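Tip: read the tokens left to right.
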């Protein structure tokens, strides 16, 4: 049967060497996965099971190397926050994946920003309501090019940082993830059948803060390059 209108093109993230692009299936995100960040959000950083939320695939905005994304300040917020995160790209589908085999399902990694309407998130939390309007809005997931595991390995103990207007805001190490990448993949795959094309934002370290129009955000992860965005 004919489509009533042309389907929305699939969002994709380029591979860093420019050889191909990674078509996005879904975007999963882990909440409060660094103890210091859990504390700054007023939560208990104990090792309770990880929790997840999703963003639509078309919330991803690929940011080419060396370019600055012009990121519009979103509607309906007066407290727009940055969260720099290690992003896992799933290259092989599976469900009930074991921790031991989890890394076999990872194609590569990237630096991403889980942009957040913090005021709405607080309101939703307060009312025990879903987080979508605070987390899953348009352009809420800027992402730098992907680095295949074959080239970058598994960044399990590397620096992760973010600056606003050249000033340090977030600086930590992926070794401080409460739930490691293999644990996160294994856990998530018990609830969803992971597919090639899935992205997992693994959570942000402490130091999240508000940005305003005119601010420039730059985030990076050792071995995975940087991502830059200007709020307009
Ligand atoms: Mn996050």
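Filled-in amino acids:
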């Amino acid at each position: 049967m004919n489509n009533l209108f042309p389907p929305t093109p699939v969002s994709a993230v380029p591979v860093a060497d420019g050889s191909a692009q990674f078509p996005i299936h879904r975007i999963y995100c882990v909440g409060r996965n660094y103890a210091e960040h859990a504390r700054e959000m007023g939560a208990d950083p104990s090792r309770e099971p990880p929790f997840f939320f999703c963003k639509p695939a078309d919330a991803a905005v690929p940011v080419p190397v060396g370019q600055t994304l012009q990121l519009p300040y979103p509607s309906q917020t007066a407290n727009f926050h940055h969260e720099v995160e290690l992003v896992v790209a799933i290259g092989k589908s599976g469900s009930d994946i074991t921790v031991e085999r989890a890394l076999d399902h990872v194609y590569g990694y990237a630096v991403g920003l889980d942009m957040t309407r913090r005021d709405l998130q607080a309101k939703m939390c307060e009312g025990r309501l879903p987080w979508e309007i605070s987390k899953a809005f348009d352009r809420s997931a800027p992402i730098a090019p992907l680095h295949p595991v074959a080239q970058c390995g598994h960044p399990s103990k590397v620096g992760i940082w973010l600056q606003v207007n050249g000033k340090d805001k977030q600086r930590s190490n992926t070794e401080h993830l409460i739930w490691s990448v293999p644990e996160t993949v294994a856990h998530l795959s018990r609830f969803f059948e992971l597919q090639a094309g899935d992205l997992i934002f693994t959570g942000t370290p402490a130091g999240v803060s508000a940005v305003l129009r005119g601010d420039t955000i730059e985030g990076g992860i050792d071995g995975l390059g940087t991502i830059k965005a200007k709020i307009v």
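The first helix runs from residue 35 to 40. The first strand starts at residue 12 and ends at 14.
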